[in-house]
Each structure stands twice: as C-alpha cells, then as structure tokens.
C-alpha cells in the first residue's frame, strides 16, 4: 500500500523569521544576550560618532563668511567650511589664471568624450580609440594646458590629435546609429562597396589626408596664452602627475617584467638591477634626488622643468612596482600555454601579445588597480618638494591670513575627495573583472 | 685594478665637464636675470606674514614684497617675477645650483650658514625671536615661572634646541611635547595638552589671532633667541648682493625720508631734500655702481611702498596683517629705538 498523494502539497511561504525585518534583526543582531549587548554598544558608538560629525560638520558649521573670525562669531565649535569654499579654485586648479580655467575643464571633457566609446558595446575599433588616446591626447592636452607657441612637431601632433578626435567622434556616432564603423559607413555612402580593397583604402587615405591638411591650416591660427607650469596646482596637478604615471607605468612595467624574464643575460641583469634599485628606495628619496641632486650634476644655469623631473621620477618608480605585479601574473600562466603557442607557430611577441599577456593581465587587475590607487595617493608627496598639488593647497589654507589656523576642514574635504576618486577606481576595477571573467566564473 | 683603469676616462670627463661648467658661468647673476626677463625668487612653504597664497592664487607677504622690490629695481616691473616655493630641506641647494636667484624667506642669519653654505646673508628685513605663549588665567607672567611645565614645540628646527637650552640654563625642568605641524601643536595647547607653546614670536602673534578667543592668551616678555631674518644670495657675486642689499636699504631709507607709495611721484618732482632727490634718481648717479637704471629706487617704492607700509600691511594691523605691534620692537626704525637702520644713500 503505497502512500502517494495525487495532488501536489501547496507551497508554504517562508517562515516569518526568515522574511520579516524583525526576524532578520533577531537572527543577526539580538540572537543572544551577549550579541544584544554588543549591538547596543555598537549602536551607541555609531550614535556618538554620527552626532558628533553632524554637529561639527553641519549643524554648527558656517558655510558663508569673509574670514575665520566671522566663523567663530557664528559658532566656536562648528566647522568653518567657508574657508574651503573660498579656496575651491585653488584646491581644484592651483594658481592657474582664473580666466583660463576653462582650458582645464575643456581638456577633461575632451578626455571623457575620447574615452567614452570604450564603454559602448556597439562602437567598432576600440583598440584604435585606446591607441589614439595614448598617442595623441597628451599633446593636445599638453598644448591646451601650457599654451604659448607651438613648434613644428607640436603642430603636427596637435593636428593629429584634432583629426583623431574628430574621426573618433564620427565613428562613435556611426557606431551608435548605424552599428557600423566609420570606414564602412563612408564606403557605403560613396557607393564603393563593390570596389576592390585597394581602391577603398586609397579613398579613405585621401579623405584622411584632406582632413589632416584642413586641421593643420586651422590650428596654425589657433593659439592659447602661455601658462607657466609653476602655476599648475591643486587636484589638476595631482591628476596630471598620476594620470601620466598611470598611463606610462603599465607599459613600462610590462617591458621591465618581460626583460626580467628574458633569456638574454644583459637585458635580464639590467632590468633586474633597475627594478631592485628603484624598489628599494622610498619615493620621497627618488623625488628629492630628481629635484635637488640632479641639477647639481648638470652644468650651472641649466634648469630642467621641476614638474618634468617629478613626473619622470614617479614613472620610473611605479614602473618597477608594476613590473613585479606583471611578473607575478606571468608566473601564474601554466607552461602548457607557452608550448601550445609555439606549436601553432607563434614567435616570442606573438606568444606574449596574443596568448600570455591577455590571460596574465586579466588575473592582475586587482593588483594593477591597487597600484594605481597607491600611485594617486603617493603623488601627494610632491607637496613636500614645493609643488602645490591638492595636499599642498589644502595645507596652505591654514596659512592664509583670513583663514589662519583653519586646517581640519580642508583635510576632511581632501579625504572625501580622495575617497570618491579612489572608490570609483576600485568599483571600476570590480566591473572590469566581472566583465572579463564572464564565461569562467570560479 | 682593471676597474680603476676603465673608470679613469669617465672621471677625467667629469672633471672637464665641471670645469667647462664653471667657465660657462662667468656671466653675472644680473646679466642672467636680465636675459631671462624675470627674477626667480625663492620663498618657503606658506608662512603667515612672510609669504602666503591668497584664495586667488597670488603670493603676498613681507618677504614676497622684498622679491617684488628687487624685481622692480631690476626691471621696473614688480611682476617680472617667479616666486618659487621650496621646502626648508632643499632651500640652500636650490640657491646653490642656480635654480633661484635669491632667497627671501625666514632663514635665520647664523655664522655657520653664512660661512659654510656658499651663500651670503644681506640686510635683515625682520628681527624675530623665540618666546612663549600662555593662557592668561594660568597666572604665569614670566618664563621663569614655567618650572616643570609642559611646553608644546615643533620639531626639526632650532626652536626645540633653544627650549632645551633655556630649560637647562635656568634649571626649570621643562617637559617638551613635540609636533611636526604647528596647527596640531596649537590644537593640543588649546585642548589643554600643554601649559605653554613656544615658537617665533611673530608667528605666535599670528596664531593667537586665529584662536577662538585671542584675548585669553598672551606672549611672555622673555625672548629666548636672536632670529635675524635676512634675504640671501649666492656667495661671490658682489654686484648682485649689492643690488639686493641696497633694495632693502632703499625700503628703509624711503620710510626714514617719508617717501611713500602714494607720494613718491610728488616727492621726485617737488621735494627740496637732496637725499630724496638722489635716492629717487632725480639727480646724482647712485645707480651706476649697481648697474641699474637711475630710477630703480623710485620703481621700488612705487611698486611696494616703503618698509613701514609693507610692515603695516602684512605684519601690522592691515587687513592681511597678523597684528604684531611694531612700536618698541626691534623692527621699529632706528629713530624710534628699533634696529631698522640704513647706511646713507649717497
């Protein structure tokens, strides 16, 4: 006699203790006398902190005042944000002439637009976008920020940047609207789709040459006023130094890591020596060497731009750290991958570029982004050698006579700013990891 | 042995390079500055009263005015100037390697620095000294009453050394509480972490004015140290050191003669005092030895005012001043019992 129910037992909803708020609270916060005590204690601490921060930072705080004395007149215990607000231009742009600040904003906007296609699934030719942004954007931005007279080389590079940017934008539009690359779109418009490949290529090259010539003629008359690098500062300077550092540290690190694993003894010894020397000294020492010792070895009166010295020092220093990160990634790749690549006839660069690096870099993303965040924060050391980066500016507020002694508020503001930037970087790296590891989740 | 032989040519090359560099630098600082078109004047990291950034990103302060005065003397334009802010660790190196043309920062003139660092200190433009700040309600009225007291002090300067010396000399057993940053030092003092603060009297006057209730604090009368703060130039270029020295003297002389930024044009045209006319270049040839234009001192006063005006603006009660009384201090004019004295300009 089998006991078989003909109909399905009706589904029961999950017990109240699993779904209700009370149930969750009970399970997670008040499950035992000790846990209850702990919860209450923690809540009390949180309350103390939050009310303290609220009272100091918002309730008693002054947001509009002429000087610190007015803040004190309003409240002796609250924060004086008026000083930070008064100094915002300095904090973000340094001593950059106020009427020229649009150039910095415009440069930032250009970069954002230039990189935008990298996030758009439908746009074609992403590798080219990435390459042009590294090759051309620095020259356009460099001229935009420092201005003055353009040499011939600079004119060519600026023209190249303008053309590359225009093509990039057009390519993005055709990609989004027609779902095709710009080159395919042009060929289609000219009804040359059936023409031989060579003709198509020549047409495109001709158009490119015309665009280049037009841009060149236009840019000859486009000049902006020169701004000395000594006026650069604030968050802008921090981002310039760390931006260049980030963009060059990864390629530099890859080259050094490959050098260190090379079979050629001289390359290997040089790479290893370089990495070990720079990794064994603190960044501040490298910075001091670069800015104070280096000019002593140069002929008298020879003054190299201090900013350039700092940037070179930051690049060299971080390339060495990056090299070790990359090397760790390379070591995680099984030998079979190398052998497999050799079997299908790939040479050294083919093996590295097509098989090994893509796998290794994917594994290294958390470490690489970690280094980048570290680099961004390390650049604040340049305030010690007299550059007014964001930290230098934040610390100078307390010395400005109207805001004398105002030092806590600027640092809190700086901490919030850094948190926003670093947290976005780390979020983005998580996003990259998920995207790249789609298909083989562990 | 083999290493040594292979190094020899490199060493020789370095020696040749060094000699040729010295030969190339025969040009005088004045020529280099004129050729470049602007003066490179070194200050330190912002310090109230002496050199500060305002919210527009411009430099201002007593020492900045000296930089502007020298730029005005050389170019007739106080904006032909690049202010370099250099950390105190790198300040003398930056002057020695030619990065800066002159130093106008709170560097104390001492024998060691003057004789061993390859630089020359010129006319002091501010006489400072170390002192103590205490709370008025503590009842302390003299530094001698600080026995066993906890005193807040910043590290890494002579301030800490002077405090220890003072304590030992007077057998006071003062306990030093050290800080890297003087904002933190002041916060600790305000929160009751120490009984007194020690530092340069000028900077402490500024700091007190930034306390929540300035009236609750006072500076004790004792001065622990002599701190003559003077501009400095590289050793060996006497023409250039004359220019900087006499620019500072011109500021003092202008005050003595009653020449101000406002009346300098009038004085040059209508004054009956031959000293004024000589200084402002209306007659005589004072400028020739310096290698400057005849109206150099006129340009200086026109650009930044006289010493008294500068003091009032940045050190005194002016809007950007940090409120250090000048009357009766070492920084008063010699005619008022101070040390500000210029040799005659004739």
Strand content of chain A: under 5%
The value of Rg of chain A in angstroms is: 29 Å
- Give the helix tally of chain A: 20
- Helicity of chain A, as a percent range: over 70%
Numbering strands along the chain, what is their spatial order in the largest sheet of chain B?
10-9-11-8-12
Distance between the termini of chain B: 65 Å
Mean pLDDT of chain A: 88
Spell out the blueprint of helices and strands.
The complex is a heterodimer of chains A (442) and B (346).
Chain A: H1 16-19, H2 21-28, H3 33-59, H4 68-74, H5 81-86, H6 88-93, H7 101-115, H8 126-135, H9 137-146, H10 152-178, H11 182-189, H12 197-220, H13 234-260, H14 265-279, H15 283-297, H16 306-331, H17 335-343, H18 348-378, H19 390-396, H20 408-436
Helix pairs in contact in A: 7-9, 8-10, 9-10, 10-12, 13-14, 13-16, 13-18, 13-19, 14-16, 15-16, 16-18, 17-18, 18-20
Chain B: H1 2-24, H2 29-36, E1 39-43, E2 52-53, E3 59-60, H3 62-75, E4 81-85, H4 91-96, E5 102-103, H5 111-116, E6 119-121, E7 126-128, E8 130-135, E9 150-154, H6 158-169, E10 175-179, H7 182-190, E11 196-200, H8 201-209, E12 217-219, E13 227-229, E14 232-234, H9 238-256, H10 264-270, H11 274-279, H12 296-304, H13 307-314
Parallel strand pairs in B: 1-4, 1-5, 9-10, 9-11
Antiparallel strand pairs in B: 2-3, 6-14, 7-13, 8-11, 8-12
